[in-house]
Records
---
Amino acid sequence: MAVKQLVYYPQDEAKLRQLSKPVANLKNRRLKRLIQDLKDTLEAQPGAAIAAPQIGELKRLIVAKFGQDDDADEEPMLTLINPEIIEAGPLETGFDGCLSIPDIYTWDTPRPSWIRFRALGEDGGEIIRQVTGMDARVLHHEIDHLDGILFLDRLRDPDELYTPVADDDGNMKMIRLTDLPRIVR
Ligand SMILES: [Zn+2]
């Protein structure tokens, strides 16, 4: 049980591009330790969810805190083993950010507006559930990690990337990355 070192883009990109393998044995003690490590690591981060490859373990395993829409209450951490999308709604363009790509955000990635999914829980029981809005975006983002896909790959416009920068009054503002050189000068 430990907070693990995150795998970062671009320096660890090769690791983030791997295809993760399904979890075969749920009774495994090593799996229990990995789930706890993922929870501890997510707890120490500002994110809503984390996928095992983000701590260098190529297993189809996610820990997520649903309830991310503004009008919702954040739920406790939920472990999703071998998650699969059963059905998905139409794409909606919206917000994305990634623990493995710190300080870079976008409002430009299309993701399903709702997802009906299946997964196994920590106790081995089947979870079938539907999530909408930001929770669907979070789940889709994490399943992407299991397939080696990053949100950068899904941008409609590759220049639609923003980073927080303090203005003269010390207020944080989101600045487009392509506009940064003008500000630094
Ligand atoms: Zn991510």
---
Amino acid sequence: MSCVIAGGGPAGAVLALLLARAGVEVTLLEKHADFLRDFRGDTIHPSTLQVLDELGLTEELLKLPHRKTYGFTLLTDDGRVQMADLHGLPGKYDYIAFVPQWDFLKIVTSAAERYPTFRLLMNAEAYGLIREGDTCKGLRYRDASGEHEIRAALTVAADGRGSVLRAAAGLVPQELGAPMDVLWFRLPREESDLDEPFLRVSAGNIMVGINRVTYWQLAYVIHKGGHDRLVQEGIGTFRETVARLLPFLEDRVGQIAGYDDLSTLTVALNRLRRWHRPGFLAIGDAAHAMSPVFGVGINLAVQDAVATANLLAGRLRAGGPVPEQDLHRLERRRLLPTRVTQAAQRLAQDRLIGPALDSTGRAPGIPVRMIGSPLVRPLIRRFLGLGVRPEHVRTPVH
Ligand SMILES: Cc1cc2nc3c(=O)[nH]c(=O)nc-3n(C[C@H](O)[C@H](O)[C@H](O)COP(=O)(O)OP(=O)(O)OC[C@H]3O[C@@H](n4cnc5c(N)ncnc54)[C@H](O)[C@@H]3O)c2cc1C
């Protein structure tokens, strides 16, 4: 086996497809039985749409029920601000497609299945590395039938922010700080509701809403560790808060039966100092956990995958091994976009989210005004739509 990838999220699935398409023998392991999980984020940004276009998959993706958004609405106590208008973005796509991530992953893995060198193992949980001296020679995993190993020239950890393979490789991320966690829940949506996804900011409260046609996927942002306080206050208080922040949902908040209807998602922002060991590479959230701020983590994970395939597919097709300097080149290439994106996320956390969660008076006005300024908006548009150093598919089809 040339390459084994742990984790069927955006990073792992896209890398597996690109490698299989380039004729590399690749196995992708996903610990769950399916891709159906709510917390993953639904945003396919223009640069990811471009990658899918280069792979001939956009048409299939856009046939699925999806929403196109050209911007986000910021709802404040004083009214609405249009944030990040993507109209006019260079390139073929000037909108974000909201597609449930399980559909996106299904399309990517189904496309990979067309290539004979691809193998997908669901319900397969990687738990350790095979090592010979300093070099990683593959991984160990368990499934319903027991424990197994797969030997490979390159083992890729794409197993997300809680990566067990990263830990097995002795790599520890540097924490950059995320002051918040997120409560995720749903309420029915009505035709007369607003259409665009929104960010609602008010003193002490932040909410995000994603239009999933028949329902709202809602995220209520809390201080890290603030879940217990919320539970003490009681579900009635939470319903009142939602109704106050989003009056159009007042008639539906009664449907939040209790805290069991809310999932708490831990937010992390961190980055590895070193993304590789001999025979081993971490990409996506396993190398750099992204905060949900700006909804760009999926994008970055996909861009990591494209860069990895561009740099390594040739060696892997020849059966490996992959010299460490190639792994280091990949890390160097992806470090700049990761650093810049995480710096922007930290800025938003420190200047907008933190103050909004802490404030007791009116919501802070200056950052909101700044976001709406004609000087800042083009920068936000480019950053959100294309990210930093967008990657293009350079791997051949074999
Ligand atoms: C609350 C929240 C909301 C977010 N919303 C957005 C958003 O709207 N848009 C956006 O772009 N980003 C969003 N993000 C960030 C985004 O989720 C991540 O940056 C992105 O999913 C990273 O992709 P990945 O493939 O690296 O990892 P993941 O998406 O975490 O995928 C890892 C995969 O590995 C599997 N796995 C884990 N361990 C193992 C194992 N041991 N063996 C085998 N498989 C394993 C997991 O089941 C999973 O399928 C959000 C993050 C949070 C916390």
